[in-house]
């Protein structure tokens, strides 16, 4: 295997996503350097970086990309022009950046949480949304988002009160509306982690008291029960069909009537929860080494 220059992509932190994310990155970096890889952290939108000197770019945690989506797309285009290899693949990353990918999956038979799409410049009609979804509480969030930014959990009265504000946001970007999934609060949200399409581990995330967001920086907690076999099988099928060539993939969903209802297929910058599972860092490193061997074979 030739010595390749590898960039482990992160972002210029403003304190929004601190804590265990830095710990995961640090442990991963240490393991990969111990294995002799020539790897360095690079900030994706640092104008001083010469991307042409890298053989491989791994999108580990560019966690602010959705705040700067035009610049992010432009950066992806630049990497493509330079011919730099990216994991996950550029085509997959572009597709996954906009939550309309969920519509693609739904049309291909994946059990996706019901969704109404609100295009940029359209209007949010709470009465219509509640009628279509047949629910008493909804989630409204941007089509390009992460970290629960501009995400609202609303009852009928709250939606009516916030409609003007949401319509203001709709002048800037597209949104989607989904029923509030009670199972997130009562049972938790599953995340299934895969490296090179092979299942590694799973976690069950539950929100903090009085909240609906499961992210750790909002007080959510993480558990590691053995996942139901049917849910894992469904997650594996989604990865097999829609995450080919991906170094990493995370399938987020809830159990509804014994089946996995997909909430997100994370293929850009998911937190990987590797510290929760013995051997997960090693499994990631072996998956990366396999990708590097594959690249050498192709060359």
Q: Helices, strands, pairings?
A:
Blueprint: E1 5-10, H1 20-34, E2 38-43, E3 56-58, H2 69-82, E4 85-87, H3 90-97, H4 101-107, E5 116-118, H5 126-133, E6 137-142, E7 152-155, H6 156-170, E8 175-179, H7 182-186, E9 189-195, E10 198-206, E11 221-223, H8 229-242, E12 248-256, E13 259-266, H9 280-298
Parallel strand pairs: 1-2, 1-3, 3-4
Antiparallel strand pairs: 5-8, 6-7, 6-8, 9-10, 9-12, 10-11, 12-13
Written account of the structure:
The chain is α+β, with helices and mostly antiparallel strands and 299 residues long. Helices cover 35% and strands 24% of the residues. A 5-stranded antiparallel sheet has the order 11-10-9-12-13. A 4-stranded parallel sheet has the order 2-1-3-4, with helices on one face. It has a 4-stranded antiparallel sheet with strand order 5-8-6-7, with helices on one face. The termini are close together.
């Amino acid at each position: 295997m030739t010595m390749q220059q590898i960039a482990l992509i992160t972002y210029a932190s403003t304190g929004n996503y601190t804590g265990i994310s830095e710990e995961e990155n640090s442990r991963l970096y240490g393991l990969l350097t111990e294995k002799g890889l020539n790897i360095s952290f690079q900030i994706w939108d640092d104008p001083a970086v010469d991307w042409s000197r890298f053989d491989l770019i791994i999108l580990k945690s560019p966690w602010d990309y959705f705040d700067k989506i035009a610049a992010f797309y432009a950066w992806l285009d630049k990497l493509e022009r330079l011919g730099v290899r990216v994991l996950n693949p550029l085509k997959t990353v572009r597709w996954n950046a906009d939550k309309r990918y969920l519509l693609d999956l739904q049309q291909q038979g994946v059990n996706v949480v019901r969704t109404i799409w609100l295009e940029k410049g359209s209007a949010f009609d709470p009465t219509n949304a509640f009628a279509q979804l047949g629910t008493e509480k909804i989630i409204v969030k941007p089509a390009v988002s992460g970290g629960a930014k501009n995400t609202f959990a609303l009852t009928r009265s709250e939606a009516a009160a916030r409609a003007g504000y949401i319509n203001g946001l709709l002048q800037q970007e597209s949104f989607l509306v989904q029923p509030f999934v009670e199972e997130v609060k009562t049972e938790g949200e599953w995340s299934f982690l895969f490296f090179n399409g092979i299942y590694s581990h799973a976690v069950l995330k539950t929100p903090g008291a009085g909240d609906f967001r499961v992210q750790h920086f909002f007080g959510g907690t993480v558990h590691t029960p053995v996942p139901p076999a049917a849910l894992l099988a469904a997650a594996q099928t989604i990865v097999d069909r829609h995450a080919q060539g991906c170094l990493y993939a995370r399938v987020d969903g809830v159990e509804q009537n014994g089946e996995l209802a997909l909430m997100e297929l994370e293929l850009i910058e998911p937190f990987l929860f590797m510290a929760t599972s013995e051997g997960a860092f090693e499994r990631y490193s072996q998956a990366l080494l396999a990708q590097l061997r594959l690249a050498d074979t192709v060359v």
